[in-house]
Amino acid sequence: MTSKRNMRLTLAAMTLASSMILVDQTAVPLATPDAIVGLDGSISESQWLLTANILPLAALMVFGGRMGDLFGMRRVFLAGAGIFAMSTAAMGVAQDMPWAIAARALQGSGAALMMPTALAIVSAVYPQEKKGAALGILAGAAAFFAALGPVLGGLLTSIDWRLVFLVNVPLALTTIYLTVHHTPDLKPDPDASRDLDLPGVFTFAVSVGSLVFGLSQGPEQGWSDPATLVPLVVGVLLVPVFVLIENRADNPMINFGLLRRINFLASNVSQFLAGMIELGLGFLTPFFLLLVVGISPATAGVALIPATIPIILAGPLSGKAFDRFGGRWPLTFGFLLLALSGVLLAMEVHERSAVALIPGLLLQGFGLGIVLTVNDPTGLTAVPEKDSGEAAGMINTSEQLGGAVGIAVLSAIELGVLKQEMTRRLVDHGINATQHQVDRFREFILGAEQTGLNQAEKSDFVNAVLGLSTASHVDAFEVVFLVSAGIALVGAISSLVMVGKPDQALRIRVFGRRSRWIAAGQGRSPAITRRPPPSTPSG
Q1: Using CA atoms, how far apart are residues 532 and 521, in angstroms rounded to an integer?
Q2: pLDDT for 392-434, tens place per residue?
Q3: pTM of the model
Q4: What is the DSSP-derived secondary structure letter of residue 487?
Q5: Residue 97: closest CA among 154, 38, 156
Q6: Which 8-state DSSP code applies to residue 228?
């Protein structure tokens, strides 16, 4: 039997791991401008510092769970933690963009091994009567630290952007130490399938990666350029190939049969759309604060708190709303809040003030908190209990996939509108900029992304066109926020039309937006085991 001390230290290790992964996602946007300058990258490459991490996380999370089936939870978790620690260190000392993007992709791969196994380890180590409380602590703490990610990212970036990554190295090593010395060696599941669906994992990763890469190339290279069209076509053509592979696989990465259950299909649709808004705006909003409002990264991190704290606060109330009304009305209401927040933000951008954004950011936080919390039980109660782990993994994948697509789509829209409006304003004012002036202005924008517009050094030409640039950024962000409102409206309509009454009684306590992790730690892969984990494993 595992001692109480070892149980507590195991919970501490798994909580630290989950928090570290989520903070990494929410802190990076504020470090991106400094990293781009430090690595001699371009503006079009900036989104890849976040997307390169999200894509393998979405593609490999199911794979990570099944590796735990075959080789043991602790062993796979430690492998993931080791990869995460080494790749984080590599990112912290990166010398160019290819190095950084490769390190971020490895980070996402390590996280994909850690996330499903961390929850399953806690579920296996704690006895049944204490399991719920332990998983609640893990989910709550992870969500809390994720909410603080922008603040930590802004503060660390004001010192050195590399600290945003390097700070995770000692945390990852601490996690490894605690796991090695205090977590029991949980044995592999002898009944686990040896079919890892590697063709499905590979096809999914290449398809999504190609689509996102093509979308990121469009604003810079042009939508008719082969560098844009080829990856987009490859990504689209691989979608039916992936579906065919999954339908023929004995143990598919994505069980499309579960999507025949309408509430579960609806939950994946809403999770994808919410992920687009959550991570897409999470990536872009800091740039508005830096380039339009003009504040520093540290101040921008604090200014983003209204968008993050409500996500935590909305969790308990949303869980009660689900118990009383089911998923349809809370999800519809949450998406309507998100739509209203997008409209408010679009109106508030013309104020060019962080304070003016607060009402829209608050509504965004509450809307996401409701949707991401209620969406989990809506989907998980629609599938048989034996499939709850697989269902939870699919919902997790939908959120990360939506985030990657959201970053690419909203960034493409922002850059496209910015380029169009800036060109129009220059023509209207009779300014014919030379290539040298254009290059110098781009250098100024990169510098402003590091320090905030108000602190950046300005040349005579920059002063002459700065007002035009700022107005163009305002127009671009107005369109982005309105598009996010449109995405939310689609979510509201789909929830209203698709979501029905729960198919079965709720089997898990709703702790907040990460309640699906609890289901992912019990039951069928990509949970970890096909059978409920023992309550008192041998040490």
Answers
A1: 9
A2: 778 888 888 898 889 889 988 998 898 888 888 888 878 877 7
A3: 0.82
A4: H
A5: 38
A6: H
